[in-house]
Amino acid sequence: MKKHLFPLFLLVFGANVQAQQDLLAIAGKDNSGIVFSDFRAMDAASGASGEKLFSADTVAKIFSQDRKGIVSEDKNSYNHSQAVTMAALAYDSSNNNLVYMPMFSSNVYVLNAKTKEITLVENTVARVTSCDINSHITRMATGYDGNIYALNNAGTQLLQISRKGSQYTVSDLGIIKDDISNGKNSFTAMETGFGGDMIADAENNFYVFSASGNVFKVTTKELKAKFVGKISGIPENYSVNGSAVNAKGKVVIASAKGDSLYEVDLLTLQAKVLPGGEKPHIYDLASRYFANDRNSSVNTPANIDIYPTRVDEHFINVNINDKTVKGNLKLSVFDISGKNVMEQNLSVKDGSLNQQVYLKNLVNGAYIVSITNESGKSILSKKIIVTE
């Protein structure tokens, strides 16, 4: 992560989290099967393990949303918050929550990364049965719209987990079908589309990574999966079980079999191994970032950028690396009606600027951020979405 690094504050799991640990992981024990060990932060540059946020041995306090009180769970079953079969995780950065589902369970769990308290969201929407591995939820990601999305092995159920106030609701969006062009690379077949994980892009579509390394683009409007290609540069027997976008917009993948983490270019699907040397058992990955996020702009020169475009902590970063840009600049923020709602002066030195800008008093919604030079000429105009 040498270019366009996000500052430390952008991911706050607690005071002890260190730099570049902008990935979250479900980690397993050194075992041939799936045995949950802990939720942990991961270094996206090296793949090294960081702070353990919650483990299988942590004393869990479970609050049932439906029953409106503390509940006890049967730890001898697969249907509890610390079950051994974990494979689906998303990060709700707006609330600093980890959202996850055990494979053999329809329950949704929400772990507050700061307080370690867990909310149980019981639902009758997810049709998970222990005897049908096709029904198990193995992929999960936060969508660009702020909702959590979860998908089962066979693609027969796409779930949307939404939050309104303090309450979570689960909806069934339907069945994902193969695009007619997929041919033998079927999204619904175990050999080519089974398992894995998924990430979201800036248009609220999803890229699903199968365990075999196949990649499918899923459009939520059409509920179709189109085969994109197969990851190259990983070992032949590599099992892709976790995927998440890092701050550079690349995808990091991990394996449940205990192997290195790889960084994948989504355009070429070429993978390169991360240098950390660790070979952890990772069942799922999650992050706060989105694929193609920097492309969702009105006019974005390659050497001038603002990010993130989905803003949930009221900060954006302005990055300029262009010798032709000099002197004082003006950053303006316009709402969807065209009203100027904020301005801030910037100063470029030697064609370089990397500055954090606080978006004060902006309510949720879409905005255009414009940067103009001293003569009033626009050098960048980009759409952002502010959420809380």
Search tags:
388 residues; 1% helix; mainly beta; Immunoglobulin-like; Neuraminidase; 31 strands; 44% strand; 2 domains
Tell me what the structure shows:
It is a single chain. This protein is an all-beta fold and 388 residues long. The chain has 2 domains: 21-287, Neuraminidase (6 Propeller); 304-386, Macroglobulin (MG2) domain (Immunoglobulin-like), CATH 2.60.40.1930. The protein has 1 helix and 31 strands. Strands 5-4-9-8-7-6 form a 6-stranded mixed beta sheet, with no helix packed on it. A 5-stranded mixed beta sheet has the order 14-18-17-16-15, with no helix packed on it. The protein has a 5-stranded mixed beta sheet with strand order 25-31-30-27-28, with no helix packed on it. A hairpin with a 7-residue loop joins β1 (23-28) and β2. The chain is globular and about 70 Å long. Residues 1-20 have low confidence and may be disordered.
